[in-house]
Amino acid sequence: MEEVYGFLPNKSKRAVVPKQQYETDREEIKDYVIERGTSGKWRYQKWKSGYCELSYIAEHTFSITQPFGNVYRSEKIQVRFPFAMTNRYSGSVSASVTTGWGNIASMTQDAVDIYVYAGGNSGKITNYINLHITGSWK
Asked: Among 14, 82, 15, which Cα is nearest to 42's?
């Protein structure tokens, strides 16, 4: 049986497989990561189909002083994506505030706007913001 030496699109290591199995596996792979990278504080992956996943973590300094019901809220914090998103996108945010949380206010194809909330008027603080965004890049 003839063998093929090479890299399969969804494998990170060199594979040795029978040629017939390689041809079958290659045809069944519908989507796979075509690009991984970093841009500023962002890490991202782009799939062949156009799907993408972005992760962000960075320190931000902001004030939590605006009354919002019985809690306080920060000014709007905008974080720009490393590339334009298309079609639908969704996301989640967390902020390392001791008695608070983060919330996505809005998203465009270029950026996400978030607010950080806390139980009291915290004044100016520096904390980490974590974002996880999914969507399409093409």
From this structure: 82
Backbone angles phi, psi at 47, to 5 degrees: -100, 160
Among 64, 39, 79, 73, residue whose Cα is nearest residue 126: 64
Q: Which single residue is written with the structure tokens 């996301």?
A: 91
With 0-12 / 13-18 / 19 or more C-beta atoms within 10 angstroms meaning exposed / middle / buried, residue 122 is buried
So what's the pLDDT on residue 129? 87
In 3-137, which ranges are E strands? 3-6, 15-18, 33-39, 42-47, 51-68, 71-74, 77-80, 86-95, 100-107, 111-118, 123-136
2-58, pLDDT tens digit by residue?
444 444 554 444 545 555 555 555 566 788 999 999 999 999 999 999 999 999 999
Quote the pLDDT of residue 4. 43
Cα 97 to Cα 48, 108, 128, distances in angstroms: 37, 25, 8
Nearest to 44 by CA among 96, 102, 84, 77: 84
Two tokens at 88? Answer: 């639908």
Collapsing DSSP states into helix, strand and coil, what is residue 10? coil
